[in-house]
Amino acid sequence: MARPRITPANAKRAIGVAKVVVPVVAPFAIKAAGYARHRWDTARARRLGVAVEALPSFSGKGATLHARLSRLATSLHELAQRREQDAEFVQSTEGRLADLAAAMRAAELMPAARRRAAHKAVAAEVDVLEAELLRRLGVTGSS
Q1: Euclidean distance between the first and the last CA atom of the chain, given in angstroms as a whole number
Q2: Is-contact 97 128, C-beta < 8 A?
Q3: How many CA atoms lie within 13 A of 126 on its CB side?
Q4: DSSP-derived secondary structure for the chain
Q5: Which residues contact 103 (CB under 8 A, 6 or more apart)?
Q6: Residue 7: left if φ>0, alpha if ψ -120 to 50, beta else—which one?
Q7: What does the pLDDT profile of the chain (143 residues) look like in tens digits?
Q8: What is the Cα Rg of the chain in Å?
Q9: C-alpha distance from residue 82 to each of 75, 76, 79, 97 (Å)
């Protein structure tokens, strides 16, 4: 007949060891978990192209698109400061970005297939806006 693995004596011994080991190991485990979380957040922020502090603003299934919209809005403000002749483009594009951001927020509540379709449509719009912004900044095409 096999002996039971957990006996009252084994349980008392395990509790005694845990009372000594846990206070010594816990601070190291907590520090390691914090470091791992920091590395994870840093890598995610780098993938999205945003600062680590701004990371909570970009969550959910459309986080990448939200980040692209945010960077595009920042670039538009820079364009407005550099080139006054593009003020009309900046104004109309800011309105379009607001519409796209609203579409992204609405897409978060949609079923998966509709959400993917909405994200695809928004991504296509953002691609067009980014290309036009780059053209106006003189990075691609003719000015």
Answers
A1: 88
A2: no
A3: 25
A4: -PPPS--HHHHHHHHHHHHHHHHHHHHHHHHHHHHHHHHHHHHHHHHHTS-GGGGGGS-STTHHHHHHHHHHHHHHHHHHHH-GGGHHHHHHHHHHHHHHHHHHHHHTTS-HHHHHHHHHHHHHHHHHHHHHHHHHHTSSS--
A5: 118, 121, 122
A6: beta
A7: 566 788 888 899 999 999 999 999 999 999 999 999 999 999 998 988 888 888 888 878 888 898 999 889 988 888 888 888 888 888 889 999 999 999 998 998 899 999 999 999 999 999 999 999 888 888 876 54
A8: 26
A9: 11, 10, 5, 20
Torsion of the alpha carbons at 66, 67, 73 and 77, rounded to the nearest 10 = 160
Residue 4 phi/psi, 5-degree rounding, is -65, 140
Residue type, 74: T
